[in-house]
Each structure stands twice: as structure tokens, then as C-alpha cells.
Structures
1.
Amino acid sequence: MLFGKKKAPDVQEPMDLDAVMKKFDRESNTRVWEGKPKIVINWVLAIFSLFCIGVTLFAMWLEELRLTTFVAFIVFNGYLVYPAKKGVQKANYMPWYDILLMICGTGAFLYYAANAMTIIQQGANFEWYQIIIGIVGIISLVEVCRRSVGLPIVIVAACFIVYALIWGLSNPTLWGKLNYIVHYLFYGKEGILSTPINVCSKFIVVFIIFGAFLERTGIADFFIKIANAVVGGFSGGPAKVAVVASALEGMVSGSSVANTVGSGSITIPLMKKTGYKPEFAAAAEASASTGGQIMPPIMGAAAFLMADYLGVPYSNIVVRAILPAILYFAGIFIAVHLEAKKEGLRGLSKEELPRFLPLLKQIYLLAPLVLLIYLVGTAQNSIQFAAAIAILVAIAVSLFNKENRITPKRIWEALAAGGQGMITVAAACGVAGIIAGTITMTGLANTIINGIVALAGNQVIIALFLTMLCCIVLGMGVPTTANYCIMAATCAPILVRMGVPDIAAHFFVFYFGIVADLTPPVALAAYAGAAIAQANPMKTAFTATKLAIGAFIVPYVFALNPAMLFIDTSAVEVVIICATSLIGIFAVSASLEGYFMTKMPWYQRVMSLIGGLLLIYPGEVTDIIGVCIVAIVVVMQLIARKRIKETV
């Protein structure tokens, strides 16, 4: 049972982490291959990784040929790896219908690849059999997405296609509508072969492979040990370890659920052992792990998509993401600190803490990541080349670590893992392209934009609120990359129409798409954490939402005043913004926790919330008022603490 009776704080039953991943992370529900079939499948996946690296670095193929070949591989591998349904899988078994779907789906995209030039030249005049091939290709890709990602994104895509068939297109016949839809979504460059899959095949795949190699260097364990050494001994240390470790892991990871289960298997039992309630322990890990998706430089691979959509350098996106990410993690860190103080919790003992100096000897594990950031930041080479060099450096640094040395066998395993990791991201990007293409094809985007703009009137704050609701609903259960693609096509233009700068609008919708992993009812990261903590899943989700309050406040701030994203501001203003925002986040967190130096009465919590929000919002007047309000609360707390000491 994943959710059972609560145990004593220092008791944690052994947890089947694979079962948790399979329950909450669709990507982990794979077929069971053993013996020689497993070796063959891994070779196929490893060859696919090498193919992707070779094509993205060296090939000068026609774009249609490159993309259709890539998607053909994704469909083929998708059916090899993912079964039709969850549950116990029979070893070395693949039903006939899966083999048929795999052959037909792969064949549909290979047909396009083999006849790419002819198809481009024939315009919109397609034969009936070409329409059938297109339909088969679309259905096969959507089914791979359902298996590897889940139903939510597929349901969204199906709703948009049904809308196009019934209301969205003016063609009077069903065949005519199908002809147009297939031409637009399968053969055109505004559907499956649009920006998401293009960016995925050029940039994201190399970083997925890089992540597979980096994981094998033992860097995740290094991050947890470093976090333990730095903050584990302080009050509520294990919760602070979860926040710091998740922030570090988020720099290279692309899954909030995987982050939660990976580091949570270590941090959540420790949090419970030191006295945190199960729901709070699970929520702290889930909110921190979800924040990994907004942490530069990878940002769940959405940073590359955002750069392509906005037509700006990748380094530009990464720099602007730094302060909002810091504020997000600062808010969680402060909340777990105040919770620890309120409950009188201690940190880990010296015997339980790793020694810091020996860890410094493993600092070389960071070399691939540091080099990657440097190469990408200086823009001396392409992003793909930078990632490829970082992979070679990861292999090199592993040679100094006996426990995690990357041997030829492990290189092959990393390539296979990278090839498997691409399936989910690419399938989601392909279906996101279908959604975005259908919206463009039917003109639905303008309808949505005009409706919300009319409803909001001239009030930007109302438009922001309505857009936030759209993002949270559309983002539920959708992976980071596809999540952002959908938001960029449907929600970002709303804010741009209302006068919000492009980059602020895209950051806004990205943030609220991501927090869907914490927001009930589809809070997958929170539920995964609850399973490990043996806690109530819904209480965990609501607690995680409270801890992640920064993700609900900060986007409004940079949408209303983009100075937080370093737009139209000076160095002095940036320093002031950083200082006041951090104080503001502290005040807001104290308000929500109901504790600062002592327990806060309701009126102090209200004052602290108002003062904190005013400080977070950039501006001289708001900063002065906010400082005054927070200062009054601090004085009240000092007086209250003094009275308590006198009565003791």
C-alpha cells in the first residue's frame, strides 16, 4: 500500500520506489525485456542516441527529412519500450497489435522522409492514400504519447481536433476537413513538425543524453551530500537539505516527479525522523523538486523552446530566470525554517552529517556542468556542440571516481538511457505541436485571446488572473516541455495583447504551467512525495501549494514590472530588487506559517503579508511602505518574545 496508517516519526517502512514511479510517472511504466531481447532493445536505443548526436552536430539534411526520420525513430522505440496499459508486464512479450501499430506508424513517417521533396512540391494536392498515411502517423504518435506521458495532454489534443472537425473549419464535407487537417498537422510545418519537435531534435535530445551521462558520474548523490554538509545540521536540517539538493538537481533534471522520488527517498524519511509531519515532509520535497523545472540552466528543457519562440539567445533566457528561481527556493527554505522553529525541531547530529572537506575532493564532478554553462553563456559554439563537449568531460571526470567510473559498458547504458528518455519528451512535443497547429489552423487562438481581453477590459491584473487559471488547467499532468509549448501557443499571446513584454508573458505562463504539478487535483509531484511519506495525498498537495507561494506571487510581479527579469533596469536597481524581494518573501512566508520569532496573531499575519507583497513588487513607494509595515511587525514580535522570556 502506498498510503497507509501514519507511523511514528522515526519509523519508515521500506518503500518500493519503482512502484511509486510507475504509479505517478508514466515514463517509468515500461515493458519488461530480459536476456538477449533486452540487449537488442538497448542497442537500438543507444544507436538512436548516436544518430541524434551525429545528425544535430554534423548533418545538413533537409529539415523535413531530418524531422520525419527523428519522429519515425520515436514511434518505433516508443512501442518497443512502452506497453498499452499499466500493470504487471509479461517478460519479453509484445502483442501483435503493438507490432502492427509500430510498423504502420514508423512506416507513415518514413514514407514522408523518403518522399519529402515530392511532398513539398505537390502543395496541398494530396491523394487519398496520402491522407490515410497521415492519419495513421498522427494516431500512432498520439498513442505513443498516451503510453509514455499520460492521458491529460492527449485529451486536450483530442478536444482541439474535435473542435476543428465540428466547428473550427468551414469546409462542408468531413473528408475535406480531414484532408485539410492532415495536410496542416502531418505534412505541414505548423503541426507535428513545428517548433517543439524541431527544438527537441536539435537541442533537447543532446541535453537528455548529457543528463544520462551526468547521472552516472554520481552527481545527484554528491548534491545531496553537499546539501547535508552545508545545512543538514541546522534547525530542521533535512527539510533544508531537500530544498538545496532539489535546487541543485533541478539544474540538470527535467522531471518534477523523478526529482521528488529520487531525492525524496532520502530526505523525506530524515524529515519525518527529525519531527516534521508526514504531509509537510512530502510537501517540502515536492515543492522543491517541482521548482527544479524553473531552475537555470536547463529549466526542464523549456529554456531552449522559449529562446526559439522569442528569437533571443539562450543565455538571455537563463540570465533572466535566475532571480525568480532564487526567490522561489528562498520562499520554500524560509518556510521550512520557520516550521522547524515553530515546532522546536533540531537538525542532524554530527555523526549523521558528511564531512565537508572530503566532499571538496569531489568538486570535479561539477566540471561538466560548469563547462556547459560557460560554453553556452559565451556563445562561442552552438548549444549542441557545448552539450557534446560536456558529455566527453563527464566521461573524463568519472575516471577519477572509482565508484562511478564510466566504462565502455556504462557508456552504452547511458546512450540507451538517453535514447529512452527522448521518447517521452519528443512524443509530448509532437502532440504539443498538434495542439498548437490546431489552434492556429482554426483561429481559436484569436477567439480565446479576444474573449479574455474583452472580459478583462483594460485591467491587466484580471487578464493575468484568468491566464493563470488557464495555465493551471491546461498544465495538469503535462510534461514541462509540452506544457510550455501549449502555454506559448494559447496563453502567452493574451498577455502580449494586454501590453505585457514578450519575455515576461512567456515566463508568466511557464511558471503557472509548472505549478500544476503541485496544484490539486492533479498534483503528481505532491502525490509521489505523499506515497514515500505515507501521508494524506490531498493534504500534501495543499501544503505544497502553500510552500510554493513564491511561484504564485513572483510571476505577477515580473508581469506587472519586468525589472525583476532585468528588463530596462540598472545594476543598482537590480541589487535593490534582490534585497527587497528576499525580505518580502520572508515576510510572506512568515505570514503563511503564522510564526516569526513567536506565534503571530492574525493581524500581524495580515500586516506581514501586505508588507511582504509590497516589498516584492519593484518600486520606491511600495518598498518604503513595505519596509515600514514589516518593521512594525518585527518590533511587535520582539516585544512579544521579550514578554514570553520574562514569564518563563
Note: Confidence is low (pLDDT under 50) at residues 1-12.
2.
Amino acid sequence: MILRWAFSLSIAALAAILLSACSLAGDITPPPGSSGGPLTATSVAPASTSAAPAVAYSGLGYPSIPPSAAKGAALFAQHCAQCHGEKGAGDGQMAAQLQFPPANFTDPALARNATPAKWFDTITKGKIDRLMPPFADSLTEAQRWDVTFFLFTLNAPQSSVDAGKAIYGAKCAECHGERGKGDGPMASSGRPLSDLGDPATLAAKSQTDLFNAIRDGQGQAMPAYADSLTDDERWSVADYIRTFSYDYLAPGAKPAEAHGTITGSVTNGTAGGRQPSGLDVVLYGFDQFQLATTVTETLQADGSFTFGDVLYIPGRAFIVTTDYGGVPYSSDVASFQGDSAKLDVPLKVYEVTTDTSFLRVDRMHIFFDFSGAGAVVGELFIMSNTGDKTLSLDAGLQFELPPGAKNLSIQNATAGRDYRETPTGFSLTTPILPGGGSQQILVSFSLPYDGQLAFSQKVPFPVATANVLVPGLGVKVSSDQLQPTGVRDVQGTQFQNYTATNLAAGSTLTFNLAGGAGGSSPAVIVDRRNLIVGGAGLTLAVAGLGWWLFSRRAPSAALPADRDGLIKAIADLDNKFEAGEMSEKEYERQRAKLKAKLIEQWND
């Protein structure tokens, strides 16, 4: 796996093993496109009339503004849907690989017994025992509340909320007020009612708690509705009351659109580098990792750019890109926050160099799998470019593999474009930007193993730390370079961890493996797509906008060279514009280029 843009590698629940055993904590920050893992909840009793025990909120603070289900939906799609599914039914693409089934938030038995405090706490702290990572660092407190309340919409269709609103208006509003503020005309002035829209009031209350209060009443202050309302009607009222504390969005509904302005500047991060100007600057907008809009502007002489009247919905992610010196560059992912319709997105570019002396391997992680014939090895290189120029790899960056290595695979990379196989390993052919951890490569290959393996691999650049992770205790590891750092038990599987430090460029890491793997191997599985650790479910996976941009390699494709191709390209462009897949400004820009090229070809 090669990650070109300024995004980090998402390890999801791999924290259970690697964060403790391999000191990867500093390596990883889940990007907006990463898989966050399951929001697995503890088991609950079927929701009828028995509420689950209330869980007091133990986090940082209640939301200062109403959480947005629309923003929560976008965040859920980015961080949770790979496991929980697009609609929260626990049927995501990764669900089959997980040891524990992801929670099904569409199940009333789960949703009606959950509280906002409990779900917020789970999202914040994670459940490592069920392979779910914490999101305290990768999502802000407000974003975690947005996701929390989005989950409540998955069991609150518009029809239920509308029915509840009608019943509430007829039977409850005269005391509780139109929006639950406790200010209805029949409210007692001597004993004010609770504000049902205050997050603190209902944070520890489930839908079942609300259902029971509606059914049984509250002493002399509130009548019981056990006989005058059906169960379905009481659930509908509970659903409507919950909307007092967040901005509701019906399941599957499209969020309302708004317009904003995105500004920024392109600066040169190389000392003495020239100020770029006149470049095409391209804005990409994404909804749930699907490209939603593309707009192109020209960089001004002072390096500034402005995208005016940008259409967006809550949660839409934006990236600004440009080409400089033949290298594509991208901004960080950004989105409009709160009620602000202005967004500043800076973008930095660099001069290029072929000097590799600034390249370092911060960490090199080596994993073994003995479950099949021979051994399958996974290697993760986390590299830094300590200079202030982009390393151009037109000639290729050489990596050697152990003798006898076969079946080379580099995750999310294409042979012939991103790398080339060589007689001793592979050659990387993508640029490396300045910065710590700016290049991350996940490699897998196979080696023969019949109970003995002399592992030997030359390191092309200085390696600060090399970690070797071997599952089980049946295989013995011996080396003059590696130091044992302990045996850890994770999910019932034992892992041996060994570490070497300060390997010089051109030196060779060697160690011996001996013994039968026995039944230990299911703990680590390396395949051509993912490195899966922990039997069925700890996944090292890259996803999201950074990889989409890298796979493109350049913001614009070359124009067709012949008249027929140009005519077809214009027709395709017209169809895209008519289908609403691009803005009018971008359509006119691309059509003008194609038309000019066609006239040139026709005149020739």
C-alpha cells in the first residue's frame, strides 16, 4: 500500500495488538476516509416495556449546539459503514471478516434500549475487546455527538416522527410546550417541567425510558397513557420527543444544500523556491467517498485562489489539488463547520530533487503467517522525507526483499505505474513529499518454510526501529540484532515481539525462525488486499479521499489526439453536464479545451 497524500494509514482495531506490541501509536491517525470499525454495543434485552439501566455520561461535556444527524450520517459513512453497513444494519463490507458481528442499529431491540450517553461513550472510548477502536482523537466531541444522534434516526422513520408530533401536539404540548421547553399554557408555575430539548435532561434516558414514562405517567403531574395510546403511538411520541435535542434527518433523506466560499493560497515549502502562479487549481467535493463536484480556477499571481458559490451539504468533504513541477499536490480534507459558509484551505507545493539522503524509515514492521504452505510475510514501511524538496523517483527507489521471496504484492499499488518488480525486490516509482511519515508502504510476499527459515533482508535507508511480530509460541526466533520485548495475549492468541533499533543504510537485518507453527497461525493473515491481524477481524486498511487522489495521479487527463476521439469526448461531456454530474463553469472550461483542440485538428 502506497499512500501519497497527506493522510495517515488507518489501523482500525489493530490497536489491540500493534499499539501495545509495536509502538505504532505515533504512526496512525485515522483519516476522514478511513474505516473506523464497529460501534459495537453491549447486548440488551428486547425492547418492550423494560428499559436498560441508565448509563451516566462520563465524557467531556454536552453539546453546546444541537447535534446534526445530517453531519452524523456523513461521518458514519466515512468511519463506520465499512463494518456497520451504509444503513447501519451491521452488513458492511468488512463485517464478514470480523470475529464479532457489528451492531445492527436498525434493530429496535438495540436502539430502543440505548441512551445517547452510552453510545457517545462507546464511540469515544471504543471497545477493543470487540475490535472497535476509540474515536476520541479522530473525531471532535461535536462530531461524536453528531454520529450518536444519527444512530437514533435509524429507528425513527419520518412517518413515526410525524405521527408522534401530531399526538404530542394533541396530548402533551399544553404542559410541555411546543418544543418540550416545559413552557406550555398548562404548565405549573410553581413546579416547572424539565426542558426535554436540553441534552443533559435525556442523555441518560433511552427510548424505552420515554415509552415507559408515557405509558405509566409521572405521579400526579402527568397522566398515564397506557389505555389511550397504542404501543406504536407511544414509540412514535418517544421518537418525536428525542428530536427536540438534535437536528433530525429522516433515514435515507438527502441533507439540505447550501452555498459557501472556499479560499486559500498555494505556497512553496522549499527554501528559495518560487511563488507558483497561473496553475490550474482543482476543487473536489465528496459525499460518502463519491465524487460530487469538481470546480477549476486559475491560481493568481500572489498564489491565492477563490472558489465562490460552492454548493455543499453537511458533511461534504473538500480537497484542493494542483500540479507543480510534474507532481500532483493535495490539501488536507476540509469541510464547512457549523453555520459558517466560509472555508480556508491552504495548499503547499515543493521543488523536486533526486537526492535520497534525506529519506528515513521511521519504523519497519514485519509480520508472519504460517497458516498455509510456507510463510506469508507482511512488511509495513513508515518513511519520512526530512528535506524540503519532493523526492522525484523517476529512476526508481530500490527495495530489496529476502532471497526466495515470491508472490510480491503492494497494497493499493499498480505494477508498472507505482512500482516495478526487480530481480531482488521492487522499485518504487512515485514521488515522496517532505514530512514525517509521508510515505507508507504495505508489502506482502511468500517465503518457503519447512520448520526452518534464515531471514535476511537488506535495508536501503536508515531504519530507526524494526519490529518483528510472530504469532504463537511454536516458532522460535533467534538473532544477534533483535531483542525480545515480551509475549502478549490478545483475544486468546499469543504474539512474540522482537525489536531492533538504529539499522544503518545498506545494513542487513537477519534472524532465524525454527519450529512448527502449530495452530497459532490464524492470528495473522496476509492477503493481496489487506493485512488482517487477529483471526477474523483486525484490519490494516487504507481508504478514502487520499487514495482516490493518488490513484488519479493528475487532476486532468490528456486530451484525445484524433478528431473522432475529440468529438466523442465532447458528446460524453455534454451528457455528464445534462445529467448534473458537473458544474456549468467546469463544463464550459473542459468543452472550450476540447473544442479548441478539435478546431486545431480540423485545420491540420
Note: Residues 200 and 485 are 46 Å apart (CA to CA).
